[in-house]
Amino acid sequence: MESAEWEATADRAATRFLRNFNLKSECMAALVYPVHGPRHQETFPELKPQEIDRLRRFGALRKFSDGEKLYEAGKVAPGMFVVLKGLVSVTQRDGLGHVAPVVEEGVGHFLAEVGQLSSRAALVDATAEGDVETLLIPTDGLRSLLVAEADLGERIMRALILRRMALLQGAVGVILIGPPASADVIRLEGFLARNGYPQHLLDPATDPEAREVIGRYADIAGGLPLVVCPDGTVLANPSERALARQIGMTAASRANFVYDVAVVGAGPAGLSTAVYGSSEGLSVAVLDARAYGGQAGASARIENYFGFPTGITGQALTARAFIQAQKFGADVMIPVAVKTLDCSRANGAFVVELEDGDRIQARTVVVASGARYRHPLIADIARFEGRGVWYWASQIEARLCAGEEVVLVGGGNSAGQGAVFLSAHAARVRMMVRGPSLAESMSQYLIDRIAATSNIELMTETEIVALDGPAGAGLEKVRWRDRRAGRESEAPIRNVFLFVGADPATEWLKGCGVALDKAGFVMTGTPRNDGGRAPSALESSIPGVFAVGDVRSGSVKRVGGAIGEGAQVVAAIHNFLAHSPGPHL
Questions:
Q1: Is 181 found in the same domain as 150?
Q2: CATH number of the domain where residue 218 is located
Q3: Bridge pairing between strands 428-432 and 456-459
């Protein structure tokens, strides 16, 4: 379809939607997908008849009557629809009843976005305008299509990604109602943002509709923030797990299925394992308690990663891997918290036990659970976490410290990236390190960038000694010590960012017999004295249990190294599976 015709169609659709829904102008959002701009033809490619014929083997015909829903926001869509006859209107709807037009899809267009790769809930509604005939390609068929039809699959995948990007920028998704500085608002905002789920925050102090909703649900247990889901369900201050379950974000595991590989952790190492493993035919489950990307996913900008000369945000890099793993068929389950690992292999398979009682069975396990930033020994630090003390720096935290002075503690690359990012928002960044310089722990390009940034003050041989603020409220004052001068100073500072080393996330391995070093990192490649097969370089003391990335003793603690280990471990898994009997169920 030519550009002018496409734009005219979009204008007609918007006019009809406004008339049909009789919506007030103040409730209308802008079109989610841009009707003007160079990328709209990539976002909505029109398939030729011969191309549609190539897709028919992956799906089946489905017909819809006028007004019938193909899928609804907040509910799992059955797959990708290719329009063969008629028109389908796509609308954005939030849980408060507001509806906005998005786009119309006609013959030759397809309806889907990347959520369909993992059977996640739709973010928009799709409604038949008159009688409609479609080719429905279910999730499994869509994955097969993307692999089998390389050139056509590339166009479709690009469109799916661009649509999700547009939805993140324009769609409402989940509505959060509460004070912007609330610890729980920030917690839920961060969870949704890290998982690429659209959201919109309403502040009851300034928004009359927010106050009305709060009054309507005054008796609901849990208090603020209220979370209004796309299907209209209202949750009061939910856990991340409860929210994810309600909005259809958590993919279900396959019942009574034994995976070839269970990967615990969805950081760069875990996602790399999933991409290389699933692309080579292994059945892969990936489990993470919070979000894909790990610590790397929270990096404001990674500038020394191979192949990205202008740099890339950690979330953008790991989001691509997240989508890629799903393209090849990996089951990525987020958020799910792992409780223990049963290494007894009673039926020939390892069992990953989850905190909600579910069990994942796998012939091998890859420990990619990473490391968590260390909590300094500062009195009362716990009561300020989420109220002025942060272990990452994203747009959400940057909003809170706009125009203010902040403290950032740490001397590694993550700290350097955080300092540079925050310097664009805060009036002043006091960067405190215990050592005499940054040279031993930070890449030179970041050292140079920090030195060239006028509002970053590097304070060497300096450490925080006290945090202060009223009970039940946020941080208000920070005291620190200059160890060279032997004197203490303080300032009214409301936000402190801590990047002070990391402890391995290996508590869930206790009782399994996996050998750890004195710091708790997983030891790999250690010779065994049992006369059996020599372990691979990434294999733990338990045959069939491997470790990659930051959680592994001796790893280089770099994104590139973690990705390389994820690729390397797949060969070791193949070798183990080739010499190991399968599970008996």
A1: no
A2: 3.40.30.10
A3: parallel
Tokens representing 250 are 């958590």
Look-up of token digits 């953008």: 316
Q: How many CB atoms lie within 10 A of CB 208?
A: 9
Nearest-angstrom CA–CA distance, 538 and 367:
10
Half-sphere exposure of 51 (CA within 13 A, CB side): 18
Give domain status of residue 253, yes or no. Answer: no
The separation between the first and the last C-alpha atoms of the chain, rounded to the nearest angstrom, is: 54
Asked whether 123 and 198 are in contact (CB, 8 A), the reply is: yes
Please give the angle made by the CA atoms of 230, 233 and 237, to the nearest 5 degrees. Answer: 105
Question: Are residues 122 and 108 part of one domain?
Answer: yes
pLDDT in tens, 127-168: 999 999 999 999 999 999 999 999 999 999 999 988 888 877
Which of the 8 DSSP states describes residue 252?
P
- Is 228 within 8 Å of 234 (Cβ atoms)? yes
Which pLDDT band holds residue 585 (cuts at 50, 70, 90)? low
Type and span of the H or E element at 14: helix 3-21
Separation of alpha carbons 526 and 537, rounded Å: 8
Residue where a domain terminates, one of 205, 225, 246? 246
The per-residue pLDDT for range 431-444, each reduced to its tens digit, is 999 999 998 889 99
Are 93 and 73 in contact by the 8 Å Cβ rule? The answer is: yes
Residues 493 and 509 in one domain: no
Cβ neighbors of 378 (< 8 A, separation 6 or more) are 464, 465, 466, 467
Give the C-alpha separation, 339 to 558, whole Å. 27
Q: State the residue for tokens 């080739």.
A: 578
Higher pLDDT, residue 30 or 427: 427
Domain around 219: 174-246
With 0-12 / 13-18 / 19 or more C-beta atoms within 10 angstroms meaning exposed / middle / buried, residue 230 is buried
Segment holding 102, helix H or strand E: strand 99-105
The counts of H helices and E strands in the chain are: 16, 27
Q: Residue range 557-567: average pLDDT?
A: 95
User: Which residues does 359 contact at the CB level (< 8 Å), separation at least 6?
Assistant: 351, 352, 353
Tell me how far apart the alpha carbons of residues 47 and 579 are, in angstroms, rounded to a whole number: 47
Given a cut of 90, whether residue 514 has pLDDT beyond it is yes
Query: Are 179 and 154 found together in one domain?
Result: no
| Full-model pTM | 0.87
11 phi/psi in degrees, rounded to 5: -65, -45
How far, in Å, CA of 360 to CA of 291, rounded?
A: 19
Number of structural domains in the chain: 4
pLDDT band at 482 (very low <50, low <70, confident <90, very high): very high
